[in-house]
Amino acid sequence: SYRYALFDMDGVIVDTAKYHYEAWRRLAEGLGFEFTMADNERLKGVSRMRSLEILLEVGNVKNLPSDRLEELCRMKNSWYIDYISKVDKREILKGTVETLTLLRRNGIKIALATASKNSQIILERLELKDLFDAIIDGNLVERPKPDPEVFLKAAEALGGNPDECVVFEDAYAGIEAAKKAGMYAVGIGDNSNLIGADMVIPGLCETDQILQLFN
Ligand code: B16
Ligand code: MG
Question: Where does Mg(2+) bind (predicted)?
Fold first, then answer.
């Protein structure tokens, strides 16, 4: 049975997607095109540079030199950090603290497994750090989701085998990564976006259903 729980961050434990969107929208506006909320769906779970590539595709902006791409990523991130440096506990998604606390009480080891390079500041602001036995974020992985690296590293940090791990993910790229890692994948959100998940639930507020997986 399952002994380890791996949680994605953005969209699973905290509602940061809107800040990512606001920063990308601002960048697109500066470049002279519109970037909609529907376009933004494609960026979920995807690395910062890959997100920029998708955004530029939407705006039909081509052939920028790599130093310009780096500069645009830096601009986006500095706005994003401005936004998240003000977040507080109200932005923790419903059920997160209860579910993680109960899992811990049942002896389940817990890791954060996120593509974000900003996990430290977010966990500090939300005072969630103590709920995790290991934190693997975008600073520690080379290959972004859908590559399984982030989840394999998280399992290793907890001392578990992939087939003992359950992954909680809101992005299609993350579900793909979890399945490639050989783990059980729980999709968070809407069924239609999360093809391939072993189970889909609306959020971590489904505490009973989640705990059952570990019995
Ligand atoms: P950063 P997750 C992902 O976090 C986000 O879903 C994605 O939109 C973002 O581009 C990526 O982190 C990188 O984040 O720019 O903060 O390094 O869902 O894997 O927790
Ligand atoms: Mg996510």
Answer: 8, 10, 169-170
pTM reported for the whole predicted model = 0.94
Distance from C-alpha of 186 to C-alpha of 208, rounded to nearest angstrom: 14
- At 41, is the pLDDT very low, low, confident or very high (cuts 50, 70, 90)? confident
Residues 126-144 have a mean pLDDT of 96
ipTM for the assembly: 0.92
pLDDT of residue 63: 94
Cα(138) to ligand 1 centroid in Å equals 8
**Ligand at shortest distance from the CA of 9:** 1
User: Would the CB of 119 count as within 6 Å of ligand 1?
Assistant: no
Among residues 157, 179, 153, 148, the alpha carbon closest in space to that of 166 is found at 179
The three-state DSSP-derived secondary structure of 136-167 is ECCCCCCCCCCCCHHHHHHHHHHCCCHHHEEE
